[in-house]
Design brief:
alpha+beta
Length: about 300
């Protein structure tokens, strides 16, 4: 229709809405995340050799695949399950002069086959299928499947490990994000029965109170081919007095031997393609320096959860 009536307002608006439903806006933040890009680039320059065959899961714009080719890979096979994104990535690869070495396939990685999509098992497995909540984009299952079927036994993984890091937090910003009290002279506290389990924190979020040390809740070795659900008990050491509202969680990526990327927050949360995730407790607790707070953490391979257990 737009070819027959270019500039048709309603048709263009509908098309853009449809595209946005398939290609989420966070792609742009990710592409423009310079610290993240530089960390991946450094890891690829360490891992890739002139004869390397690199397999990437989830190419998006094709940026990391292009980095792998620039680092010297003989062949980069990269897949993308959203067809219009795969088409755009192929255009980007060709535009940048790497069409002969980077092959974009519009499939899920679990559908790829040696001898059909890949000429041989990969020497390097590259991915960035990580959500704010770490596991929400199925990174464990996807990489385990690729390790079993699509890579050499001694393949290098980028990242090789991913972790969920956690900290006790408080402050007005988080209080207003997850609870309500008196508003315009009215008591709205019964609405707190709907306190959310998680809240992704936007790049423009306000200041908050850090109340404890940072702890690694879970670490996953992506070189393994089997993963199971897990549970941990975290014992936070309180560093300052305040009202603890819950746990703030973020990502740490082990990209190569000594190359680590982490979207750790400062006292003012800094812009990042990945957002930190606030896990509110069912009810706030008052804490004092030196106090130990026990938190139960669980994951089911796709989701993370935190809950207050005991305090002492």
């Amino acid at each position: 229709f737009l070819e027959l009536a270019p500039g048709h307002f309603e048709a263009e608006a509908l098309l853009r809405d449809l595209q946005t439903s398939q290609v989420r806006p966070w792609h742009f933040r990710m592409m423009n995340d310079r610290p993240r890009n530089q960390a991946y680039d450094a890891a690829l320059r360490r891992a890739v050799t002139p004869g390397s065959h690199v397999l990437e899961i989830g190419t998006g714009s094709g940026l990391l695949a292009l980095m792998a080719a620039r680092a010297g890979a003989a062949l980069v096979t990269t897949c993308e399950m959203v067809e219009i994104v795969a088409e755009a990535a192929a255009d980007i690869v060709a535009r940048n002069g790497y069409g002969e070495r980077v092959k974009v396939i519009a499939k899920k990685s679990t559908e790829l086959q040696i001898g059909v999509d890949l000429p041989r098992p990969a020497d390097v497995l590259l991915s960035e299928i990580l959500g704010d909540r770490l596991l929400s984009e199925d990174v464990l299952r996807s990489t385990a499947d690729a390790r079993r079927r699509l890579t050499k036994p001694d393949a290098i993984l980028i990242p090789r490990g991913v972790s969920a890091i956690a900290r006790l937090v408080g402050g007005a910003f988080f209080a207003e994000s997850a609870s309500v009290g008196q508003v315009e002279g009215f008591d709205l506290t019964p609405f707190n029965r709907f306190t959310p389990s998680t809240i992704s924190i936007s790049m423009e979020s306000g200041q908050f109170d850090s109340l404890s040390d940072d702890l690694e809740a879970f670490r996953f070795d992506l070189r393994e081919t089997e993963h199971g659900s897990g549970e941990a008990r975290l014992h936070f050491s309180v560093s300052r007095a305040g009202t603890c509202l819950g746990v703030l969680q973020w990502l740490r990526l082990q990209l190569h031997d000594d190359i680590v990327f982490e979207n750790a927050p400062a006292e003012q949360i800094a812009p990042s393609a990945w957002r930190q995730v606030f896990h509110p407790f069912a009810a706030p607790i008052a804490v004092q320096p030196g106090q130990r707070v026990a938190v139960r953490a669980k994951h089911d391979l796709s989701n993370l959860a935190f809950a207050l257990e005991t305090q002492r």
